Amino acid sequence: MKKSLILAVVLGFGAAMSSCELDKFPETGYNEHNVPEGDAETDTAIKTREQLSGQLTTMYDYMRGDYQTAWYQLITLADCRVDNAYGGNLGEAKVVAVEANRIDSENEFASTLWNYPMTAIDNANQIICNIDNVKANDPALTEREYQEWLSEALCWRAYNWLLMHQIFGEVPMLREIPPAITSENIEEVYPLYFPEREPIDTLRVQIVKDLEYACQYAPDVDVANKYKITKGFAYGLAAKFYAMREFRDWTKVKSCCEAVEGLGYELCDSYEELWAFTEGDAGMAAQNTKESIFEVSWPNQSNGSWMWMMFYRNAYKPDDSFTWAKWCTPSRNLIAAFEAEGDTERMNASIRYDACGWSFHYPKDDYAFMYKCRTNVSPVYVLRLADILLLHAEALANLSDAGGAADLVDRVRERAHLPKLTSEQRGSVEEMKEAVLHERRLELAFEGHRWFDLMRFGDDYSRLKSVSDNANVQGTDSYDSYTQARRTMDDNHILLPVPTSVIENNPNIHQNTGY
After folding, report:
1. pLDDT above 70 covers what percent of the chain?
2. The whole model's pTM is what?
């Protein structure tokens, strides 16, 4: 009787989902749309090296395909929820809600940042869960390919797990592909089709295991191809992991950053070089710079991205899709921070003024735009050296090495033609922590970092809350008269709500507190 009831539930949910698109058919669990067909005995359709190689290609293609939606919404979320940007388009309720801290479970940002990473995790799992079978049955797969391909998939899965963890808290952790459901195995496979959110300690153990393997076996750095997960990204991701409050170990952050720095990456000679592009029909944006550790890039203008249209113009077709208000409009508070430092190089590379047809936040004849997605071939920098240097500095400051932290920050400031930090800053651990946070704001604006940097700062969320809330409080450092009136950033609204569609389609997923 129990088996019949469970089977009815599974089939019922499957029928409910069968005619829906991604937002109605979330990658919360496996189903007929995201499990490759195979026979009941082997439970896999990936049996050869060639098929596995194709799945690796699928994993990477998704990063610059549908996952663009996650990239641009991540950038918007990270800067608009705090002090770097306004939502941008006051006519779009979903982005206004992001800025106003009023995201609900129907908001597209919640569904995007749950569903797209879950699909990315599934893509990685198709490699992770099938590679041993391929190794056992196809001698064409070499040992080196086995180690490297597995490492790449483990890193990409870990990246998405950690991203979801920071946004939603506990997440379901799919680690195997379920077989076809039968009346005999339903109780065994049911949790695989409808997984629960798992405890943070489970995530900790799995991430440590996966990244330790990847740091050892991931591909070496390829200076000609930064659109590839390598040891640099594996160590960098480990550094990010150990910097998170729940998993914090500053000594390990330090050692992981040192490992990345020892792999030959260098800062670009100028900040502008990271965002530069060449003119003409065959023009290209900067790619594979010596600073890039892992980037998502596009091969040419004919096969480029579309996410630029969310922020500004495509320099190669400047009149295309420029009739509607753009997202992630630079805030006056951020502009003031650049100006207070005399930081014209990074400000001019990050912000562009132009005439447009709307005046939500600036006069329409001199409107400010986010300028780090300049063309349809401009890369998304998932990780670059300046980020690692400043994370290393953050670790040193928290290990009471203010001087060592200052040396690293000064390397980044020197590239921006700014003076070195003061002797007072160099001599104070607390001032160095503030200096690192400030430097990360200017260096990494509009790259999807600000919210997460503030989440990480200190031993609680007090700084994150004050930056968000004080945007509406005159006389505070965070005040900005153009910021939307915000709901107070309390403990229940730091995390986003789980999308309604996910809860409706998976009876084992429960909503976050406060929603």
Report:
1. 91
2. 0.92
